UniProtKB/TrEMBL annotation:
Cross-referenced Gene3D superfamilies: 1.10.287.70
Highest taxon above the source species: Eukaryota
Record protein name field: Uncharacterized protein
Organism: Panagrolaimus davidi
Keywords per UniProt: Membrane, Transmembrane, Transmembrane helix
Chain segments annotated as transmembrane: 136-157
């Protein structure tokens, strides 16, 4: 430990007691420097109800912890409360979390914090709502393109069906003509004219 002041703001008078307490902390925990964690707002905007802890090797990655009503901290991702503790004002964090618990980008955590500070809770929780006129215009454009594509598809299908029915009709009429024994295939145009003029 380089300097205790890097880890705690508390004055430690009884160094022996301090050492024996620290030695009780399992080896699965690491000490976090004051410069490697910060307090923030909880998801509902409560001050100092979140701690953002930088990872040991990659400082661009963090884990976030939230405070529950009983004043203990749990991991915001895997919800375990066994991974963070304070002793003598020193923060200890578990090196390993449960399966499926992932770190976040520090920049992302900061972005969420700034949204929470502005009171934009919905955005901080990941709801995308168009906030400016330009966005709404773009979304409107997408809707129009989508609708025109759908109507184009319907038109194509309609044309195909029309052709199919015409062909079918012609085939039926030709067969009909042949069975009438008029000697050969009747011209489709001729049939059309006949049916219009009688
Ligand atoms: Zn976790």
């Amino acid at each position: 430990m380089e300097s205790l002041k890097e880890y705690t703001k508390e004055e430690i008078n009884n160094l022996e007691a301090f050492k024996s307490e620290i030695e009780k902390v399992p080896k699965t925990f690491r000490l976090i420097k004051l410069s490697d964690y910060e307090y923030g707002l909880s998801s509902n905007g409560k001050k100092d109800h979140r701690i953002i802890v930088k990872e040991e090797r990659d400082k661009s990655k963090v884990r976030e912890y939230s405070k529950n009503g009983k004043n203990y901290w749990y991991c915001s991702k895997c919800k375990s409360s066994a991974f963070l503790k304070f002793k003598y004002g020193i923060l200890f964090a578990a090196i390993q979390h449960g399966n499926g618990c992932e770190t976040k980008e520090y920049s992302f955590a900061k972005k969420i914090q700034s949204l929470l500070k502005q009171g934009k809770f919905n955005e901080a929780h990941g709801d995308v709502t168009p906030t400016n006129f330009e966005d709404m215009f773009i979304i409107f454009g997408f809707i129009i393109i989508g609708l025109s594509l759908v109507s184009m598809c319907i038109n194509v299908v309609q044309l195909k069906l029309k052709n199919l029915f015409e062909e079918l009709l012609m085939t039926i009429l030709e067969e009909y003509g042949a069975s009438q024994g008029e000697g050969g295939i009747i011209d489709a145009e001729e049939i059309r004219e006949k049916s219009w003029f009688n």
